[in-house]
Amino acid sequence: APPAVPGVAAEPPRAQPPAREEDFYCVKWISWKGERTPVVTQSENGPCPLLAIINILLLQWKASGVKLPPQKEVITAEELMAHLGNCILATQPRDTSEGLQLNFQQNINDTMTVLPKLSTGLDVNVRFTGVSDFEYTPECIVFDLLNIPLYHGWLVDPQSPEQVQAVGKLSYNQLVEKIITCKQASDSSLVSEGLVAEQFLESTASQLTFHGLCELTARAREGELGVFFRNNHFSTMIKHKVRPQTPAGTPGWPSALTVPCPSSPQGHLYLLVTDQGFLQEEGVVWESLHSVDGDSCFCDTEFHLSHAPGKEGATAASPDHRLQQSQVDQDYMVALSLQQGQEVPSVLSDLELARQLQHEEYQQHHPHPQPGPSQPLPAQVGGRAARERRQRRKSDLDCALL
């Protein structure tokens, strides 16, 4: 139980209300880094930062020590709080100096006050200057103690000087107050600045900008697990770089390519899928974060693109099929980057373009049955993006692909 707060009268004991349905969470078991690992899901799309934090601790259980019984299928909010509390208490500094111990005790007291809010939502106030910039509130202490990074992608574009001037270093709450004040001002310049700020909030209502997505991709470290905040929702996020192998002799690809195929040099961002609707879908674990308009794709635990949920054969595949699927994944993610206008080194783009051309030529000479309307292949999207890229770079190419 949280310690008593000085100066606050203790409340008389009250009967506990019956447990609500949302106080129980279904557990999904996945294969993560060779280990059978639990992931906590939710039935409703709510803020619930508790799940975002606890899933990070479960995915990195070797460091956090948080594990669930092998047969665990349902877990309560109280159990999750207990695991989280144990992790926080384990952060006690080894230094026994009085100053550090008092500071740690104060942090623990602040954290215990915040913990009950984790299952409903935390008060976080973003600043539009950086992906890690938040107005510091007592709720942030949980992330600090557990050393879990908290990110957002709602940034003002530095190439828009009017918006930079209007938004400045203000937080969201401060910017809303500024807009109200400027609308009531008699100075026309202040009124205009308030309108620019208001237009920024309206045009970025998704709370993710292209500049923010680029900064987020650059800031996150390879393999880093963090919490991503957007639209009052907290998600577990990871940055991963796909590195499929393409040995010589693979049908449809140049026989000389025997080296690993690098993806985008900055890797890609993925959000953990915690929707209870995918509880039985082992091939749906991650959702890509590559677009500001919500366009995304599902991936399995190895970050390979998933087939349509519920289709037979989605998880069972031959080695050759998995090898080809890895290449499709690679081409698709590069195509997504190109669609968003991200910078990709020219050598890498030409290499991927050559593979795409070879693949299209192979498909023309070796047609395969087309998938049904309920199961579109990601390669179709990748092919369209590759053709668009080919049109844009036609004048830059100094060689012909035969």
Please describe what this structure looks like.
The protein has 402 residues and is of the alpha+beta class. Among the domains are: 24-154 and 207-245 and 263-299, no CATH class; 158-206. Helices cover 38% and strands 12% of the residues. The chain contains twelve helices and eleven strands. It has helices at residues 49-59, 61-64, 77-89, 98-114, 141-145, 161-167, 172-183, 188-203, 210-219, 319-339, 346-365, 378-392; strands spanning 24-32, 35-40, 74-76, 125-126, 134-135, 150-151, 225-230, 233-240, 268-272, 286-289, 298-299. The strands form three sheets. Strands 6-7-8-9-10-11 form a six-stranded mixed β-sheet. Strand 1 and strand 2 form a beta hairpin. Helix 1 (49-59) crosses helix 3 and helix 10 packs across helix 12. The longest helix is centred in the C-terminal third of the chain and has 21 residues, at 319-339. The protein is globular and about 65 Å long. 28% of the residues are buried.
Question: How many strands?
Answer: 11
Computed CA radius of gyration, to the nearest angstrom? 25 Å
Tell me the overall shape: globular
* SSE pattern: EEHHEHHEEHEHHHHEEEEEHHH
Spatial order of the strands forming the largest sheet:
6-7-8-9-10-11
Uncertain runs are 1-19, 244-264, 310-319, 342-348, 370-397
Percent strand equals 5-15%
SS field, number of helical segments: 12
* Approximate helicity band: 25-40%
Catalytic activity: Thiol-dependent hydrolysis of ester, thioester, amide, peptide and isopeptide bonds formed by the C-terminal Gly of ubiquitin (a 76-residue protein attached to proteins as an intracellular targeting signal)
GO molecular function, one term: histone deubiquitinase activity
Pfam families: MINDY_DUB (PF04424)
Domain MINDY deubiquitinase: 24-303
